[in-house]
Amino acid sequence: MSSSLTPQRPGMHARQISSSSFAEEFNAARSKLGDLTFDDSDTELGSGSDSAGGSPSLSSSDTEGACCSPALSDNTPPSPVSPITTPLTPITDPDVADNFAFAFDIDGVLIRGGRPIPEAIEAMKVLNGENEFGIKVPYIFLTNGGGKFEKERCEDLSQQLEIEVSPGQFICGHTPMREFADRYGTVLVVGGEGETCRAVAEGYGFRDVITPGDILKANAATAPFRKLTESERSASRDLLARGGRLSDIVVEAVFVFADSRDWASDLQIMLDIAQSRGGRLETRSATFTEGPPIYFSHNDVLWSSAHEHARLGMGALRKMVETVFEDTSGGRRLRTHAFGKPQVSTFEFATRLLQQWRAAQHGLAESEPPATVYFVGDTPESDIRGTNAMNDKSRHTEWYSLLVKTGVYQAGTEPKYKPRKLVDTVLDAVNHGIRREMAKLGSCKKTGGRLLPLDDAAMKAIAEGRTPNFVTKAGPFSDP
Ligand SMILES: [Mg+2]
């Protein structure tokens, strides 16, 4: 913890960080994890305005200043993407599909309101070999959600989907934040139930994690209408026990790990820090230009829960922080950062994980990426937008977007970002991908590689990137 009155990184104010340079630095650090397959010098989804539901920060034209992100400016090696506990095996599973894989969003695709979507369990069975071709297909999960240890979330998912889900095939919204653990001293972690996100952050290696509860415990006047419960008070840490005043504490970065449980006080505290002198608690900058960087684990304004209509998510809080900052700072703009989908960097993160997983679980060569990754999501603004952007950038792998009707997307409406294929459920998505691949392959493993009866029309469809008509045991399949 710094005791200096000057900002920790002179000349590198949060609002001067170029979003593209931030993304490049993030990529550079991440590339140390191993050889990435893609030409990934820029993770922006594009410049210009992003009016509805996109990522207004990393995808916006925030070109002010050309300095590096303070987050990733040294050579400290990042932590592994996610632990892979299964030992590498040189034996390739003879029934595994080596040329394609699936990646799934979770909420609104597999799970809704804490319960599995009925077709999800069947879809997992199909991927695990219960399909007309007798093949197993590798898959990973990529969710913007969070607020728990990855291992814990995998245990929940295993139970819900009746399969074994490993942390080696799972990325949640805050997983990439582990790469920042060595970069900052004192950080404020926001969101989630109780003390869980502090524990997750400390598990990532962050050295000094404080929470809004700690600040409220030290100064109840910070948020006049928020009273800590007895259990919250006892769980919160005593910042004054450090032997000084709150103003001796300098927050070097703010990380919103999971959805806020108390938007009003979290908003107040985040604004206080954004308007502070270099992150120093209980101070106010004269220019409103000295606040530390603020990172959100994703930017979803809406998400699909048990309620009939989509609920507000972290992206809405992000908008509030930025808007209220502007309203209370004489019109100065606040630029915050968001991870998660639709950022291409998150999909690249997933690419690396998928290749590790294919090698560890199925014995496939880690250096050879699948030709196609089918991404199944329910939110056009994050899932489909990100998948399509990844497809545009990827040199070796086709990223094929599939939109389901069981979550945020409302059937009958026009999605802002168009999927390659709109389907009813995740089971339809899985069947579509497998049959499309089998049609491309023109053979059926169960029959010893027998060629499927593809006519000229079918071959033309394949050449044009469509799935041809052909008949399987599961019935006619076409993709007009
Ligand atoms: Mg979703």
TrEMBL record:
GO CC term, one of those recorded: mitochondrion
Residue stretches in coiled coil: none
Q: What InterPro entries does its record include?
A: CDP-alcohol_PTase-I, HAD-like_sf, HAD-SF_hydro_IIA, HAD-SF_hydro_IIA_CECR5, HAD_sf
Q: Name one Pfam family in it.
A: Hydrolase_like
Q: Give start-end positions of Low complexity composition bias.
A: 46-61
Q: Where is this region: Disordered?
A: 1-21, 34-90
Q: Which GO terms describe its biological process?
A: glycerophospholipid biosynthetic process
| Record protein name field | HAD-like domain-containing protein
> Whose protein is this, by species?
Lasiosphaeris hirsuta
At the highest ranks, the source species' classification is: Eukaryota, Fungi, Dikarya, Ascomycota, Pezizomycotina
